[in-house]
Amino acid sequence: MATYLIGLDVGTSSTKAILIDEAGEVVDTKVPTYDFSTPRPLWAESDPEHWWEATTEALRALAEKAGPENIAGIGLTGQMHGLVMLDGAGKVLRPCIMWNDQRTESQCAAITEQVGLARVLQLTGNPILPGFTAPKIAWVRENEPEVFAQVDKILLPKDYVRYRLTGEFFTDVSDASGMSLLDVANRTWSDEMIAALDIPSSWLPEVTESPVASAKISAEGALATGLVAGTPVIAGGGDQAAQAVGCGIVSEGVVSTTVGTSGVVFAHSDEYRVDPEGRLHAFCHAVPGRWHLMGVMLSAAGSFQWYRNELGKAEMEAEADGGLDAYEALTQLAAEAPPGSEGLLFLPYLSGERTPYPDPSARGSFVGLSLRHGRAHLTRAVLEGVSYGLNDSLSLMRQHGVEPDRVILSGGGARSKFWRQMLADVFAARCELLNATEGAAYGAALLAAVGVGVYDSVESACGKCIRVTDQTEVGPEKEVYADFYPRYQALYPALKEEFAALSTLSDKYAG
């Protein structure tokens, strides 16, 4: 009888479910989509019922494909930091406040002042940021007291889906690390941070390591999904930790870079390392007893998407008429400009920034424009600016003793051979692609395989299922980028106050 595992990724605008066999080969994938809302500037909310509807649709299809009796376990992952509030009957009290919501700047400042920045970093490994969960709890207390008075449980997005599947309240250490409520060094809830929020510890789910089979499909969950009641549901991980497992980032010396809408640089760490200025995230890894450092860039391939949409209309029209993909056409155009774009730099802060500058007021900028520059230079400058921005995180990791011998690339931007070479040259490190391309959902499936005993460890699962399919060595343009990168680094400090002033004026005259 065949044995299959499912990885389920509760994402921002879709839920991705993949079915793998015991050897780690992907058998099928389902990706139901949904929308989220932005009811006010800086807000981002989602209806958890949409996640559940997408989950049941995807799991029913995979159960039918594999035969429900052949599915040995399900691993969960999903968007981090979201706040789902339930009442005592398990009813959702308000839409989820999502990871990309920026409304809580004042709450972040208040909690930080109360606990002290140094203590916050020591306990949680990170500054308290607007996207994180704890300040969202404080915001609801201050702005929606009628909702706050009814709260009985607080869950992260994937853990709400677990609750609907199993009736149980669990989370894992990697996802909980992004709540500003976990003692990350000791991998348990922080009594001190919970007290600072003045919330009952009973509101929080039990926290476990990621490969633990924490719950089982309930009778209600089986009826909704077509799965067999009693099927193990593994704790899983936050999307970035699960993505790293899916890329084999489970030992020191290997770093991954995801060039998606946002950009993520992720390094495994055998020990708890904290940046004393809070510029890097320090979270528990999905590998038991291990941690990771992570830098997050809010507009990576998203910057290139903006450029295509606004300044690449000719390429988009040509694509619509049956021509070359607009992104590929634009990268060909970028290749016509020399490395360094003849002194033109682009700051990719189109959505503010997180690493190394946690600044929602940061703005995108072209700096160094002259009559010499044309569309080829502008296009190349966008790709170079994103590459420099990702290198900010890698440079900080190197300062903490993480010296990668290779960088694993994933995400839409990594499909471009031209961009892969640029990243290898900017990073001064070999870049690789892998056979595993299903991201966080694949990592969740591997965690499920470990949780039910198909593999005896996360490292073993990755070693047997993941292999390199492409390598890009460092090229001669490394020296050019090494000269321009310090000029890029100098721009944000020089413009920080102007960004804040422009943000104030923008708010003043909005609408």
Describe this structure in words.
- The structure is a single chain.
- Helix 2 (105-115) packs across helix 4 (133-143) and helix 12 packs across helix 13.
- The protein contains 18 helices and 23 strands.
- With 511 residues, it is an alpha+beta fold.
- The strands form 7 sheets. The protein has a 7-stranded mixed β-sheet with strand order 17-18-16-15-21-22-23, sandwiched between helices. Strands 3-2-1-5-14-13 form a 6-stranded mixed β-sheet. A two-stranded antiparallel sheet has the order 4-7.
- The model has no long low-confidence stretch (mean pLDDT 95).
- 54% of the residues are buried.
Main traits of this protein?
alpha+beta, 23 strands, 511 residues, single chain, Nucleotidyltransferase, domain 5
